Amino acid sequence: MKKQNRNEANIDYYDINSDWAGSRTVTDTQEIVQFHNNSTIRIWCNEQDKDYDSHWHSAMEIIMPMENHYTVEIKQDIYTINPGEFLIIPPGEMHKLIAPQTGRRFVLLFDISLLMKLKGGSSIQALLVQPLYITRDSYSQIYQETYQLLHEIINEYFSKKEYAELTIYSLLLNFFVKFIYNHIYENELFPDVHMSRQQEYVKKFNDLLDYIDMHYDEELSLEKMAAHMGFSKFHFSRLFKQYTSLTFNDYLNYRRLKAAEELLSDPGLPIAEVSLQSGFNSISTFNRLFKQVKNCTPSEFRSKKSYAVPAEKPPLV
User: Fold this and answer.
1) Which end of the chain has the lower number of beta carbons within 10 A, N or C?
2) Of 314, 311, 289, whose CA–CA distance to 92 is shortest?
3) 259/271 Cα distance (integer angstroms)
4) pLDDT of 3
5) Nearest to 113 by CA among 67, 178, 150, 58
6) Quick one: average pLDDT of 84-106?
7) Whole-angstrom Cα distance, residue 305 to residue 229?
């Protein structure tokens, strides 16, 4: 990362990150993000021309090019992000970064675990089941507002104002709410449902996601949830996928694996107990799904999280 100062609108985009020790904590494909001065936020003004192989971290990442493009590979999808666009990478998503020879971009990293625990936070979680590539055309209704909110977050961070972190999270909540409302009301979420019942269905599915958050460790079958909602199994399955973009079983496994990640932070909790408390009755199913998503076993994940050591490399952002 270049050390020169670049003052735009009287903001120094480099000094605030001088606390960074010059190394990153990473083992294999997992990175432990080093947040700014024990906060839960790190924003880089990044000019590196270095690529990074596939990796993941528990922070949400937003990449926002300012000069030249930037390329991100997630699973089989390749996103070439241009100035005026941004990409939201969900927590835990494996991604590869490919930088141009020259350019500049902002990289925003947030721990959003507390936001998920707010009432309605399950809607944020559902929003982030996949990456969000934001362009003026793809999100025309909210593009200008959300792009401006990111600039406000960046300015707040680099201006080093008092209570900056509180202000940034209030802006971030506003940012997410705009995406949630856009998802519900602008995308014709339930095209086959009469307009008078749209709000009723939205409330039903918001309540269902909150219910899953509270009861993911219990037996939640498709049939039971369909009956709980008052729908046939077929109708429920179709509506659930329209609302979350995942099947019910895929979403339930996604939520259970998120819970498992947190539980694995406790080194005294046996893997079998982590599996059970996460809602998996079969430890073999738990191990298989976890490795499929994280590219490592639960035991390996715990070892990396607990004993990762700094590597003498530039920051992986």
Assistant:
1) N
2) 289
3) 13
4) 42
5) 58
6) 95
7) 39
Which structure tokens are listed for 283?
């430890």
How far is Cα 230 from Cα 236, in angstroms, rounded to an integer? 9
Check: CB of residue 109 under 8 Å from CB of residue 33. Answer: yes
3-state secondary structure of 29: coil
Q: Which residues, listed in sequence order, are joined to residue 134 by a DSSP beta bridge?
A: 86
Q: Does residue 311 sit in helix, strand or coil?
A: strand
- CA pair distance 285, 152, nearest whole angstrom: 44
Cβ–Cβ under 8 Å, residues 257 and 293: yes
Per-residue pLDDT, 99: 95
Place of tokens 């799904």: 289
* Beta carbons within 8 Å of 228's beta carbon, 6+ residues apart: 208, 211
**Residue 64 contacts residue 105 (beta carbons within 8 Å):** yes
- Cβ count near 236 (within 10 Å): 21
* Closest to 81 measured CA to CA, from 70, 89, 90: 70
pTM summary value: 0.84
Residues 6+ apart with CB under 8 A from 200: none
| Region of residue 89 (left: phi > 0; alpha: psi -120 to 50; beta: else) | beta
- Model pLDDT, residue 190: 75
Q: How far is CA 56 from the centre of its chain?
A: 11
Residue 308 token pair: 């990762």
Confidence of residue 157 (pLDDT cuts 50, 70, 90): very high
Pairing of strands 132-134, 52-55: unpaired
